[in-house]
Amino acid sequence: MRISEEQFRIFQNAGQLLRYRPGELIYMQQDSADTLYLVCKGRVRVYLSTESGEEVTLEIVERGRIFGESSFVQNARRPTTVSAVTETELAACRLSDLGPAMAGSWELTRAVLQMMSDTCDYLSRLVKRAYLYDRRERLAAFLLEQTATDNPDKGVVDGALPYTHEDLALVVGLSRVTVTRVLGEFQSNGWVECGYRHIRVRDRDGLHSVLARFPERIP
After folding, report:
1. What would the mean pLDDT of 165-174 be, rounded to a whole number?
2. How confident is the model at residue 1 (pLDDT cuts 50, 70, 90)?
3. For residue 43, what are the domain limits?
């Protein structure tokens, strides 16, 4: 779910507009959580980092969505790190400033709560797939879910994801070599087409056949 243009304006008026270059950090794990962010332009990556430097991407968040929900908890710390993927503009709102705006707009409050619920649902599916799916199933499910509808704000157009093999590896929790091998199999079957910085889904039924063990049907 994304907020409406009217809700955009409410959010922007309550906050401060910030700009980031690709790869620039927005905040890090364990930073103090006192600000909620709305993506006005571009995309950001939400990920976990280990002490050894390993990174696990949880989600790519695009225009019209919020992140930094941990700021709703008093004295909270950030559980994730977030950085810009593209040239990015964010409306950064402290809860003390956003609260009155939300109190005056039930539609904005409902939209924020719905996005928080969507995030919880997404993370639940992520955990399920990490524990129950094999490498082929993980990749097929991710490709189907991300290309279910076109989303220009996320760079998804005509069934194509703007991802490299390394990007996919980070998101689905596999090695780059494994992702390349599985994509090669999918491409040989005519299910996907791999190009420079994009993977296009050609046959959704073919990818669904990989998920035969599971009852869920991804559009």
Report:
1. 84
2. low
3. 5-128
Task: Decide: 37 and 91 in contact? Cβ < 8 Å.
Answer: yes
Q: Are residues 124 and 162 in the same domain?
A: no
Residue 118 has pLDDT above 80, yes or no: yes
Q: What is the CATH number of the domain that holds 158?
A: 1.10.10.10
pTM for the model:
0.74
Q: 193 CB contacts (<8 Å, ≥6 apart)?
A: 187, 199, 200, 202
Spatial separation of the C-alpha atoms in residues 118 and 124, rounded to whole Å: 10
Distance of CA 106 to the CA centre of its chain: 25
90 phi and psi, to 5 degrees? -125, 145
Quick one: tokens of 44? 């950001």
Q: Are residues 167 and 108 in the same domain?
A: no
Instruction: Give pLDDT tens digits for 23-72.
Output: 999 999 999 888 999 999 998 999 988 777 777 788 888 888 889 988 77
DSSP 8-class letter at 87: S
Q: Determine contact, residues 122/59, Cβ cutoff 8 Å.
A: yes
- Six token digits for residue 209: 């056949």
Q: Which DSSP state fits 5?
A: H
Q: Are residues 78 and 18 part of one domain?
A: yes
